[in-house]
Design a protein that fits this description.
The complex is a heterodimer of chains A (426) and B (479).
Chain A (H helix, E strand, L loop, with lengths): L20 H7 L4 H7 L3 H10 L12 H6 L10 E6 L8 H8 L1 H15 L3 E6 L4 H16 L4 E4 L4 E9 L9 H8 L23 E5 H13 L1 H7 L8 E8 L5 E6 L5 H8 L9 E5 L19 H6 L8 E6 L4 H15 L5 H18 L7 H12 L7 H15 L1 H10 L6
Parallel strand pairs in A: 1-2, 1-5, 2-4, 6-9
Antiparallel strand pairs in A: 3-4, 6-7, 8-9
Helix pairs in contact in A: 2-6, 2-9, 3-10, 5-6, 6-9, 9-10, 13-14, 13-16, 14-15, 14-16, 15-16
Chain B lengths: L2 E4 L2 E4 L6 H7 L23 E4 L6 E2 L10 E3 L3 H16 L15 H9 L22 E3 L9 H10 L4 E4 L6 E4 L11 H6 L5 E3 L12 E6 L8 E7 L2 E7 L12 H5 L14 E4 L2 E4 L2 H12 L4 E6 L4 H14 L4 E5 L26 H6 L3 E2 L9 E6 L12 E6 L11 E4 L8 E4 L5 E4 L12 H10 L2 H11 L1
Parallel strand pairs in B: 1-5, 15-16, 15-18, 16-17, 18-19, 19-20
Antiparallel strand pairs in B: 1-2, 3-4, 3-5, 6-9, 7-8, 10-11, 11-12, 13-14, 13-20, 21-22
Helix pairs in contact in B: 2-3, 7-11, 8-10
The chains are: A alpha/beta (426), B alpha/beta (479).
């Protein structure tokens, strides 16, 4: 078993009482970081964030402190801080536990973030399916309002910050930050042309920072214990803090695991933490960062699970959601299902994504059901190539990456379907 | 001016200009579907992707502003490959029914397929189909042909000021339709057909009337109101089939209203009188020119005459009348007329927030420049009226006075007239009109005069040359 580093979140999960302001204050030094932050300058906070090497936890892994630094000091329009709680990448379930077990941590992080970027209004855009989490957040928010931790003149230190929970209506695309902002504004949830980036013109045209739940929940720790300490929790140079890994699929102990960023390989997480493959079967495939991450074969998983290390081998850490597939499951079927998801969730704006995701899905469906043709595999690779990098937002890449990687890495499985006229395992 | 390099050529640009426009100024075409210079940029068709040095991914030219020293390639292998794949994606669900599509021959999708597409088809799956709603009297919708460029949605939202076209559903099932399935409401609906890059939105008025490649396109000006929008009228074999907007950034940008678009129909309507006519035996009957002119002259001889000049006439025609009226109609008072309630240029105002003006004739302001005064009431003692009219000016109430009509009238309008000398509509003559801003614009002849209609100068010459006394006697004898 890998040596556990200090954890920030996970010890508070699974407890009813951790939701309360009292617990948060007593057990987590709740809102002490806020008091400290309100005594600091905005630049100091942003510098502390930069020192912390906090990579965005939503999927892209962009350094959060750098992002905060993009916000203009002066703005004619109000600035906004938006928390992306859409958590829509299949396989991902980490933000949910933060929101339902330690909602005050997120609220505190947001008030500090609002102060640092000069925003007086914040939104938590939460996926529509999280009805219970939205309710719990709202309870925590009203608790915070009652305690003078939200609203006007917070803690008597002159900072104003209002926080509202906005529920999405069930679209994956609204996890993309500009689509999220459109949806927040009451428009169709479709990504926008960048530039302008949200930091220049985001929600309602005002400068806006959009951060993931886990990213914002890390802020109080960074303020309380310093950016250098936070950076030290990570084992790699450019990646600080701990990470919540969600392991799902064919493992013995699926669930969330928190480890220091870059401190374990995928194999260690799957076998040491998650207990290995269900029924002790052989491992077939690993999707390391939510279903949009290009797939890995069992030979490729001795790699440190972190942003840069996984990028180096052509996949991504994404939302640190590891989907494990055993030999018992048909990878053609799995890819068809993943592909169908992205076709269904494509917003329909960009030609390659609108037309290509459905086309790929149709071809995969044929292959899965024994109607594949020899030329289909080359077609799939070509189609994914024609989508990747050629759309407004990353959904095109998300749809193309799995197809290209599955077809290349599990070519024999696809060929068996095509030549045998059916699924070999059926 | 700053410069960038496109396909190896140095091109000057104005800061803020996007690459499509900059390239266009150098004669380099970057293809696009969703981009329209009069609408906001959405960068979603992805057809205008170009390669820019120092940028790893292809960038959409519509959403990329040129910068000093930027090096752009519009025809590199990567760009060609991307264009080819976008064309393939756009066509997999398109019905390819060009042989029976009204847009064929002027279709962006068709033309771009020819220029950038592949001659081979790889798509072996089922095509997407939709059922269409009726969109009202102007536009026929065919969603199967749609390529989701959203120009129509943006036009409604940004120009017509009504969000009536919307996208419903999502992804591959996205349907462009009216929000509630109700007919279009805007009075600018024809523009939807103009800007649609495929045959998805076509004009009901033009459907199945003519293949577009047979049409001769004549640039001219709208006579529908005092704005004078730039138009293109399309004719074949001396029949006008269609009217479309013509770009004029200073007057109407890229748009025209439906009233102006469909105004031309009266030109070739069966009700229009294109033969000279004289009142005989209590009704207006077709007559020879000499007979009709004689009847006209007889009608006004020895009477106190008022001359009414439609503000739908050109400057040339009005000037001619101004010069010749004292000779032909000695002592007659002369006024302009056109729109009820608008007797002076100052009464002319915007009729909506887009293009329309309240003066429903084109040359009100020109006539004022020439010193014509507007008709309020006919001068006391008027016994006969001569009306000169281009076809659009609203006739005033003539109270049963003996009237001669010169110009364009329908049989119903001229029912009580003593004589009609048929003149030319705005499509049958060239000339100058002056819009509400004082802008002089040129009407251009689109078709040859229909029937026996003649230019005003010719009619006035006849008027002068037909021997008045003799003709009066002859006409009198005949009647």
């Amino acid at each position: 078993m890998q040596q556990q580093t200090e954890t920030l979140f996970i010890q508070h999960f699974g407890k009813e009482e951790s939701r309360s302001l009292a617990y948060f204050r007593e057990k987590m030094a709740g809102y002490s970081a806020l008091r400290k932050a309100l005594g600091m300058s905005q630049d100091d906070i942003i510098n502390e964030m930069k020192r912390a090497n906090l990579r965005g936890r939503g999927g892209a892994g962009f350094p959060a402190g750098v992002k905060w630094g993009f916000i203009p000091k002066q703005s004619a329009k109000p600035k906004y801080l938006v928390c992306n709680a859409d958590e829509s990448e299949p396989g991902t379930f980490k933000d949910r536990d933060i929101m339902r077990y330690i909602p005050h941590l997120l609220i505190e992080g947001m008030v500090i973030g609002g102060y640092a970027i000069g925003a007086k209004v914040g939104y938590i855009y939460i996926r529509g399916e999280y009805t219970r989490e939205a309710k719990l957040l709202n309870q925590a928010i009203s608790e915070a309002y009652d305690a003078g931790l939200l609203g006007k003149n917070i803690l008597g230190l002159g900072h104003d910050f209002d926080l509202t929970v906005h529920r999405g209506a069930g679209a994956y695309i609204c996890g993309e930050e500009t689509a999220l902002l459109s949806s927040l504004e009451g428009k169709r949830g479709e990504p926008r042309v960048k530039p302008p980036f949200p930091a220049q013109a985001g929600a309602f045209g005002g400068p806006t920072i959009v951060n993931n739940v886990e990213t914002l929940a890390a802020v109080p720790f960074i303020i309380n214990r310093g950016g250098d300490w936070f950076a030290g929790l990570g084992k790699l140079e450019r990646s600080g803090g701990t990470r919540l890994f969600g392991v799902s699929g064919h493992v013995k102990k699926p669930g969330l695991y928190e480890i220091g960023a870059g401190s374990a390989t995928l194999r260690q997480i799957i076998y040491d933490f998650a207990g290995g493959i269900l029924h002790d079967k052989k491992l077939k495939a690993v999707i390391p960062g939510g279903s949009s991450a290009p797939v890995l074969t069992p030979e490729e998983i001795d790699v440190i699970a972190d942003v840069d290390t996984l990028a180096k081998i052509g996949t991504m850490l994404g939302s640190a959601s590891i989907v494990v597939v055993s030999e018992e499951y048909c990878v053609v079927r799995l890819l068809t299902r993943i592909s169908k998801f992205y076709a269904h969730e494509s917003c329909g704006q960009c030609t390659p994504c609108r037309e290509g995701t459905r086309w790929m899905t149709d071809v995969l469906y044929r292959i899965e059901h024994g109607h594949g043709r020899e030329e289909d595999l080359a077609l799939l690779l070509d189609l994914s190539n024609n989508i990747a990098g050629r759309t407004l937002c990353p959904l095109g890449d998300a749809a193309a990456g799995p197809v290209a990687s599955f077809v290349k890495k599990f070519q024999a499985d696809f060929e068996a379907h095509i030549r045998g006229g059916k699924c070999p395992s059926a | 001016m700053p410069k960038c390099i496109i396909d190896g050529r140095e091109v000057e640009f104005t800061p803020g200009q996007n690459l499509i426009e900059v390239a266009k100024s150098a004669g380099i075409v970057i293809p696009g579907f969703c981009y329209h210079p009069g609408l906001s940029v959405v960068a979603q068709c992805r057809m205008c992707a170009v390669e820019i040095e120092k940028m790893p991914k292809l960038q959409t030219a519509c959403s990329t502003a040129a910068t000093e020293g930027m090096v752009v390639k519009t025809r590199s292998e990567r760009v060609k490959d991307a264009q080819k794949s976008v064309m393939e994606f756009l066509l997999i669900n398109h019905p390819l029914d060009c042989p029976i599509c009204d847009k064929a021959g002027e279709c962006d999708l068709q033309d771009r397929s020819f220029d950038y597409g592949s001659p081979y088809q790889r798509y072996a799956e089922e095509r997407r189909t939709f059922e269409d709603v009726d969109m009202g009297p102007v536009i026929k919708k065919n969603m199967n042909r749609c390529i989701h460029c959203t120009r129509c949605i943006r036009f409604g939202d940004e120009i017509a000021g009504i969000r009536e076209m919307v996208a419903i559903h999502r992804g591959n099932s996205t349907e462009i339709t009216t929000l509630t399935g109700l007919p279009l409401e805007t009075e600018y609906a024809g523009n939807y057909a103009d800007i649609c890059p495929t045959g998805s939105l076509t004009l009901k008025d033009f459907r199945f009337k003519k293949r577009v490649w047979f049409l001769k396109k004549v640039p001219t000006i709208c006579e529908g109101c005092s704005r004078g929008c730039s138009l293109e009228l399309h004719q074949s074999d001396n029949v006008i089939y269609r009217c479309v907007a013509r770009e004029n950034l200073e007057v109407n940008k890229y748009w025209i209203c439906d009233e102006g678009r469909f105004n031309f129909h009266y030109v070739q309507a069966p009700e229009r009188l294109t033969e000279p006519a004289a009142r005989q035996g209590g009704s207006l009957q077709s007559a020879e020119w000499s007979v009709a002119v004689a009847k006209a002259k007889a009608t006004i001889v020895d009477k106190k005459v008022t001359v009414l000049v439609g503000s739908d006439l050109t400057q040339e025609e009005a000037l001619l009348l101004k010069e010749l009226a004292p000779k032909h109609f000695p002592g007659a008072a002369m006024f302009h007329f056109g729109t009820p309630g608008i007797t002076a240029g100052q009464h002319d105002a915007p009729a909506d927030k887009i293009l329309k003006r309240t003066s429903k004739t084109s040359n009100l302001h020109g006539l004022e420049q020439l010193g014509f005064e507007g008709l309020v009431t006919l001068p006391r003692g008027t016994e006969a009226v001569v009306v000169f009219r281009g076809g659009r000016a609203t006739l005033p109430d003539l109270g049963g006075l003996a009237t001669v009509g010169v110009g364009v009238f329908t049989a119903a309008e001229a029912e009580a007239f003593q004589a009609v000398l048929p003149g030319l509509t705005f499509t049958e003559k060239s000339g100058t009109i002056v819009n509400f801003e004082g802008r002089e614009q040129q009407l251009k002849r689109v078709i040859l005069p229909l029937g026996q209609a003649k230019p005003l100068a010719e009619i006035l010459t006849m008027w002068a040359n037909v021997g008045a006394a003799a003709v009066v006697a002859r006409a009198g004898a005949k009647v």
